[in-house]
Amino acid sequence: MIPASFEYHRPGSLQEALQLLQTYGGEASVLAGGHSLLPSMKLRLARPGRIIDIGRLAELNYIREEGNAIAIGALTTHHEIATWDLVVNELPFLAEAAAAIGDVQVRNKGTIGGSLAHADPAADYPAAVLAGNAEIVVQGAGGSRKIAAADFFVDLFTTSLQPGELITEIRFPKLSGKTGSAYLKFPHPASRFAVVGCAAVVTVDGGTIQEARVALTGVASTAYRAKAVEDALKGQSTDPATVEQAVEKATEGVDVMSDHFASSEYRAHLARVYARRALLKAIERA
To answer: Right CATH number for 7-53 from 3.30.70.240, 1.10.4200.10, 3.30.43.10, 3.40.50.300?
Structure first.
């Protein structure tokens, strides 16, 4: 189908983009990589009167080390995140999540900020930012603020972004000590979205798990931390039997989704399987 008519704006700076958002408010939609917005427009599920194209704002495309954090600009592409040495070496679970997204075309055009703002329940990045204890930096007319990943995802396609705000940066603390991480998923064979995906970050000392962060995507209406699994692992041995027992709690307290491809029972099974696999890989890397 052909999208409904709209006016196109291409700001030359972040400040100009924010001014356009303030001027046009709910009439406007923001275009970054376009892999979420454009299909919705073609199906006429979205009919914005104006498109604000921020995709060429170089000031939001970077990966850099800042003290004990890795700062990633919102317009950094999936391919750049998957292949950038700093990410691969310091945040391997994030590089793996980026590498698992879509196909070559999507990875070369899609952006981390666009993906997070869209908040698809089957997207890969939400699990990674949750397990990575990331902060999402946003900017609006009132200035800049930081949102903890745990507070960012509200519900299906819903975030804590306020009207007129844009994601500008995502900040990940570096992994320290004997910490390993991994991201694994069961992809939908057509869309490559996660039927179930799991990011795990595990700190080990002397064969004992000091801390575990386990985040799942594709399972519920929004990505979530599997706190019951984390609590069951803390202070326990790294033995596979311990992990096997802990991941039985992977969907505890969660309303598991069901669709034409995977029933809620099957998704719950996959959540346990992929939580176990990601945890064991993270432990092996610690």
So the answer is: 3.30.43.10
C-alpha 44: how far from chain center: 26
Per the structure block, which two tokens stand in for 99? 């590498």
Query: What one-letter code names the amino acid at 117?
Result: A
**What pLDDT, in 10s, does the model give residues 53-107?**
999 999 999 999 999 999 999 999 999 999 999 999 999 999 999 999 999 999 9
Kindly report whether the global pTM for this prediction surpasses the value 0.85: yes
- Assign domain 58-173 one CATH number from 3.30.465.10, 3.40.50.20, 3.40.50.300, 3.90.960.10: 3.30.465.10
Q: What is the pLDDT of residues 183-199, one digit of tens each?
A: 999 999 999 999 999 99
Residue type, 97: A
Sign of the Cα pseudo-torsion (13, 102, 214, 257, in order) = positive
CA distances from 256 to 84, 166, 251 (A): 34, 30, 7
